[in-house]
Structures are given as C-alpha cells and as structure tokens.
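Response to reviewer comment R2.3. The reviewers asked that we include at least one raw input/output pair. We reproduce the pair for Efflux RND transporter periplasmic adaptor subunit here without editing.
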Amino acid sequence: MRHLFILLISASVLISCKNKAITKTESDVYYTCSMDPQVVEQKPGKCPICKMDLTPVKKSNGDKKDEIQLSDQQIQLGNIQTDTIRNGTIGDQLVLTASLNFDQMKTSSVSSRVMGRVEKLYFKNIGDYVSKGAALYAIYSEDLNNAKQEYLLALEQKKTFATETAIDFEQLLQSAKNKLLLWGVSESQINELARTKKASPTTTFYSTASGYITSMDIREGDYAMEGGTIVKMADLSTLWAEAQVYTSQLAAIDLNSTATVQLPDIDGKEIKGRIEFVNPEINPDTRINLIRVSIPNTGNELKPGMSAYVVLKSRQRQSLTLPIDAVIRDGKGATVWIRTSGQSFKSKMVQVGLESDDRIEIKSGLTAGDVVVISGAYLLHSEYVFKKGADPMSGHNH
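Raw output as returned:
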C-alpha cells in the first residue's frame, strides 16, 4: 500500500512537470500568418484565411509589453524600411487659388469738365489701347462756346483799346484764358484759337493717361454731365493675382516672402512677385481673406480674368524631418514607429510642425539618431493592435 502511494505521488509530480513544460512551450512560441497577422495559433498549420503555412514566432525573454517583434519574413513581406532621423532644412509652402485682375493703382478715368453733347468718340471698343495725348472725344457745349467767345472778345478789346483806356485788358484776357484751361482746353488749343480767331462749335478733348479701355459709360449723341465719366482705362504693365486664403492659414503667411504665380493657361508659366496687400477685413460668412500679389506683365501676355495659383514659401530653417508617410495621425495626435533592436519596434508620440513637399517637421518626441520606420508604419500599427489587443499609444499622456 505504501509503495502504491509513493507511485501515485511520483506520477502526479511527473504530470505536473510535463504540463509546466507544455505551458512554457506554448508561451515561448506561437504561429502566425505573415499575410494575415491577426491569425495567432499555438500549433503549426495553415492560415484559415489565405491557406499559407503559419510562421513560428519565438518570443524573447526581453520582449516588452509596449514593443512588438516581427520575424524576418514579416519584415520582408511588409516592406518595413527604416531610416535614421537627422537635422535638415524645411520651409512651409502654401498654394492658393487666384485670378488675375487689374492693378487698381494703375487705373484711371477720364471725366467731362463741362456739360454737353458728345459728338464724336475716337475710341469705341472695350480693350482699345489709348496713348497719352491721343484725341478721345469731341463735345458740343454752350458754356464752353461762350467761354471761347469771351476769350476772343478780350483779345479784340486788348488790341483795339489797350492804349485809350485805363482798363487792364491783359488781366481780362488772362481771366478768360484761365476759364478755358479750367474746363480742360489745352494751351495749344487756346493758341490756335488766338491765331485763327475762329471758335469751332465742338471741342476735342485728349487723353490725360495711357492704357486699355476697361469700360465706356457714354455713347455718341449722349449728353455728358459735368464730372461724368467718359471712359475708364487700365495700365496692364503690371497685374494683381488676387488669392483667397482661409483665416487659419494667415499665420503661415510671411508677408516678406517671395510669391510665385503659376499660370495654367500659359503652359504652367511661373512669375515671381511680391505681396502688395492683405485685406484687414475677413468675410464673416466664409472666413476667407484676400491677398494681392503684384506681377509684371511683359509684352501684355497676361489678361485680367485668367486663373492662377499663388505659391507662398516661408524661409528655410534647420529641423528634424521625416517623410510624411512615416507619421500616423489621428484625433489623439501623431505617432511614429522606431526600431529598438534588430526585430523589435516601439511606437512613440511626436509633435509635428511644417509640411513641405513630402517631408514633415518633427518638433519633439524624437532625437537625432533615432531609427524610424519610414515605410510600413501602418502595418506595424495594425500588427500591434491585433497581437496586443490595444492601441500602442493608449498608455501615453497627450
């Protein structure tokens, strides 16, 4: 009986040791699929999803709960690539939708100095170019004709009575001349009037500026009021590229930076310009502001109304940068994966800054020399969630 009792105890101890050995084996090795990492089995076999052979993965004693280990096959199939983060230069770039418009600093209008009927317009089409000093319109005006007659009368009186009376006819003549000048009659026209002694019923007025006609507010036969606009003109040697910018983007705009205006209608032509104006008033409905970039219009190749893009770049500065695809961003923040050893990876939260082309600035969370996953970061994130059953950033403070 005693021998039987000893035999039972020995068998019990042996079974216990065997179970422990099995438990240890199960905890040290598991089997997963490199294509479907969510599949985790305790014994070899085939993946129930893709039917590939399961890959054995051995857990190292130093495996930490906030890290994940991959097999060589998983790293190869997942295209996990790393790079060492280092200091580089980065500058912000902002692309805004714009359209070309007249440079309002180089627009002008020609108004009638007197009331009368417009007998002739020398330019009748929008877009006609008018040079400074060119005849613009001819007007019939009773007031102007009376002023001409007053001037001729003063000339005649000065010639006839200058030596016979104490009246200062020179002053009377100058007063009549000043009235004509005030109403826009030129010196050469007054001299011609004095020479011929004949007053034409119509008076021709000349352009005081050069430019392209942008609007015509009157037609032949219409009556022009004193001060009424005859034509409006614009000098197209420079144009404005007017771009819309959201309020949230204003802080990123460097008013001293160089602006590049891209013109898709002219084979993507690019012209350098400068920011001339930022509207201080924001539209409360759209939260959109307006900036204007002045650009030269060499050869008048550009036309108001053309579509354009305004590219604004800030100054380059030294900073840690990574490819944009290396950063995983969600509502909780931004994270990257770093290699802690040969096959071990760990997620770290970072603070990002400027983006330029395919690079992004890392303001904090990493130091120069960290080995960062630049390809396959999203696969690592998914692998961690499947294997650990939790978000890799759940234990971080935000």
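The chain has four domains: 24-59, 74-88+319-388, 94-104+236-313, 113-227. Residues 113-227 form one domain. Further pairs are available on request from the corresponding author.
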